[in-house]
Design goal:
Blueprint lengths: L2 E3 L7 H12 L11 E5 L5 E3 L3 H9 L9 E5 L2 H4 L17 E3 L3 H14 L1 H10 L5 E3 L5 H9 L2
Parallel strand pairs: 1-3, 2-4
Antiparallel strand pairs: 2-3, 5-6
């Protein structure tokens, strides 16, 4: 399974280095609380939705990712480009051409707006501020994330 990142860069290099040290000590895939979400689209591409630091560290150390640590979720591209307030999905994007940026503060603000102003106004806002949570795709592989880390 080839995992394609949905981020252009590792957001916290200390976290990446922490996971590298764990893998180097043989502690890599132990004590996981949550499975790492991987979205499989209709063209069978596997998009790494979260867990970029840990997956990148595993790749860097040459350690395979066990399938049982992944949560495989099937979505089509249309679904990924839709807002879904019911599940808190307020960062619609097309992973073929876009990557997600750090958006935790944005997401908090948008969900607050949704509670106060409702679905229609908030959805219109989300479409207007896409630049706050997505950017054009640069990274194509996990290796791209690692190479970016090594140049910093």
């Amino acid at each position: 399974m080839i995992l394609i990142p949905t981020h252009n860069k590792l957001r916290d290099l200390q976290t990446f280095r922490h996971f590298v040290r764990r893998f180097e000590r043989g502690l890599g895939w132990t004590e996981r609380k949550f499975k790492i979400p991987v979205i499989v689209t209709e063209d069978s591409k596997c998009w790494l939705y979260d867990g970029h630091h840990e997956i990148s560290a595993s790749h860097y150390c040459g350690i395979s990712v066990p399938i049982d640590v992944l949560n495989i979720i099937r979505y089509d591209y249309y679904q990924l480009e839709q807002i879904n307030f019911k599940v808190g999905y307020v960062t619609p994007f097309d992973p073929r051409t876009e990557c997600r940026k750090s958006f935790h503060e944005y997401k908090f603000d948008v969900l607050k707006m949704y509670k106060e102003l409702g679905e229609d106004i908030t959805a219109a806002h989300i479409k207007q501020v896409k630049h706050l949570y997505s950017e054009p795709r640069v990274a194509q592989t996990i290796q791209d994330l690692i190479l970016q880390e090594q140049t910093i």
